[in-house]
Amino acid sequence: MAFSHALTSCSWEGCGYTRFCGGLAWGDEDGFVELILSLLAQPSNEAPSLDKPSPSSDNSATHINVKQCLRKVADGHFTAAVKVLCSLGVAPFRNDTLKALVAKHPTLTPPVMPDFLLSEPPLVVDADCVFKCIASFPKGTSCGRDVLRAQHILDAFCGEGSAITGGLLKAIAAVVNLCLAGRCPKILAEYVASAPLMPLLKPDNEIRPIAVGMIWRRLVSKAAMRGVGKEMAKYLGDFQFGVGVPSGAEAVLHSANRFLNEFHSDGS
Predict the structure, then answer these.
(1) Around Cβ 220, how many Cβ atoms within 10 Å?
(2) 44 backbone dihedrals φ, ψ, rounded to 5°
(3) For the chain, which residues make up each domain, given as ranges?
(4) What does the pLDDT profile of the chain (268 residues) look like in tens digits?
(5) Alpha-carbon distance 226 to 133, whole Å?
(6) Backbone angles phi, psi at 194, to 5 degrees
């Protein structure tokens, strides 16, 4: 209930939450599920034809890069702003782009969830932990398919929404704990755990798919890592680079690529 009041009081351009909060019966048992499904069922803007190349040009691509650069500068991401200026942009919306995305990310059957319950109690986080996780998202963090950003939630704590900050944080913490306990409604799993792909162009004319998931899944992941990250990193020690090691897996890939490039370049 606290979340619905905060969402209604905030005016978010391009977000359909305000319309839903007014007409949805939040007291209903399936109110939250109905809200999400209604939002995801909205028809998107008419997409261009896959068979027709989009009317893009070097000038328009440069204009987009400049706009993105200014946005990154406004968010204080100066390194990212420089990278954006050199970006080749997004791959055109056509059949070969779609085929390349499917080749890199083929459709798989959903994983089978275990029927038994774990003997260990699930991780439980409090409202203070949830707030720190929300605030830890970098400024300007992109949204998933539900259009909700971390900044939207932070904005709900300000202004008129500050009166219900405590209740709102408790409500969000309850949702996070629900997911940590493995009790997220199965009907929402397809949307919460999935992410749209953004096909960025690479210098070799290949594409690099960038996936941006929903803020809720990322928030749950942050809360889980905050709860067990240090303990797991200490337990695993120096035998891994994926848990509690910032950019560890990425560093391994870059090191391996550098080694292979040097190996092939010297002819040995």
Answers:
(1) 23
(2) -80, 170
(3) 2-41+92-105+120-265, 57-88
(4) 444 444 444 433 334 343 334 444 445 556 656 666 666 666 555 555 555 555 544 556 677 777 877 877 777 777 777 777 777 778 888 898 889 998 888 888 877 777 777 778 899 999 999 999 999 998 888 888 888 889 999 998 888 878 888 999 999 999 999 999 888 888 887 788 888 888 888 888 788 888 888 999 999 999 998 888 888 888 887 778 878 777 788 888 888 888 888 877 665 5
(5) 8
(6) -100, 175
Residue 64's identity, in one-letter code, is I
DSSP β-bridge partners for residue 209:
199
Q: For 200, phi and psi rounded to 5 degrees?
A: -85, 145
Q: Which long-range contacts (CB under 8 A, 24 or more apart) does 121-124 make?
A: 122/177, 122/180, 122/181, 122/182, 123/180, 123/223, 123/224, 123/227, 123/228, 124/177, 124/180
Residues 6+ apart with CB under 8 A from 37: 187
pTM: 0.66
C-alpha closest to that of 158 among 175, 134, 182:
134
